[in-house]
Amino acid sequence: MNRDEMLKALTAMDFYAVDMALYLNTHPDDTEALARYNAIVNEANTLRQSYEQQYGPLYSFRSCSAAPWQWINDPWPWQAQFNFTLGGDDK
Amino acid sequence: MWIYEKKLEYPIKIKNPNPRMAKYIISQYGGPDGELAASLRYLSQRFSMVTPQAQATLNDIGTEELAHLEMIGTMVKQLTEKASVEELERAGLGAYFTDHDRAVYPVSASGTPFTAAYLQSKGDPITDLYENMAAEQKARSTYEYLIQLADDPDVIDPLRFLREREVVHFQRFGEALRLVQDYLGDRKRVSMRMPDKKR
Amino acid sequence: MKENVGMMAAGGTCIPLETPIENVRLAHAYVPWQLLCGTMPPIQSLKAGTIFPELTGHYGVW
């Protein structure tokens, strides 16, 4: 996967986890939901590790960095060139 | 505490400058029904909320709203950064430019600076949850108005995402309300606390 | 609390919410309890703004 494809997959998986976590906050006993959440988190973390290895840290004070300190590098998320093209609705 | 992840919750890649839309979209940054008001509202209310489920809901939705605040700021920046001063002025951003250049500053679409008067943290958990449900509906309506004003898919797609998040948040606050109503109902209390005299 | 599984009707259709809402009181509002049926895959969910199909299409379609 190139950077855009990796970032797209990671963004989507992390979003799945966010939405499922909000559901779990009000449905803590839903074991089916919990299983799906844990599966996605594991998959996302594996991809996250790959992404960080190739493209640099996603977190300050949590991720390792090569020298010189990579955290400060462009692009930052608010810059257009940081972002991938998602495409429209799936119909 | 907060950890920042160096990516947006939803991608924003706007090719065409549009200061006119920036002037409207900034309302979801610093306006009455925007993401800053939402994050502060929920992150403040969580301190006095009851039940683990409702506390987690306020904590996590408040956190997600910060990610949305970031998206709105990003949209305003990308919509204005390549516009000339003449284009900004023609779009009605002359006064804003005077005070801020192309910086992002928390104001509403009509230029009113952000105020905590846009939010409430009442303390009564039921009252706070109704406040939040109303806030999510107001945000949803605002995104619908912005979607009507926009014509660029690079702008509309993130706005539609944010609109749908409001609907989901409304459902979660509604569920939190059910849990808190049951919890407070079970305790058979007429009021939330004893008057000071009797403590 | 409520059963946290989407209800299966005779034909195997999953209903993603409680029906009816019971034990209601005057001067109280009730949002129906959502129940898990299925979720959309991640990229489709990101485009839709939620993983839950039953939470899409409300309040007019945009």
What does this structure look like?
The complex is a heterotrimer of chains A (91), B (199) and C (62). With 91 residues, chain A is mainly α. Chain A has helices at residues 3-26, 31-55. Chain A is built from 2 helices and no strands. The longest helix of chain A has 25 residues, at 31-55. Chain A is globular and about 45 Å long. Chain B is mainly α and 199 residues long. Helix content of chain B is 62%, strand content 0%. Chain B has 8 helices and no strands. In chain B, helix 1 (19-25) packs antiparallel against helix 4 and helix 3 (35-45) packs antiparallel against helix 7 (125-149). The two termini of chain B are 34 Å apart. Chain C has 62 residues and is largely without helices or strands. Chain C has one helix spanning 42-48; strands spanning 7-8, 14-15. A two-stranded antiparallel ribbon of chain C has the order 1-2. The radius of gyration of chain C is 14 Å and the shape is extended. The N and C termini of chain C lie far apart (35 Å). The interface between A and B is medium-sized, with 32 and 33 residues.
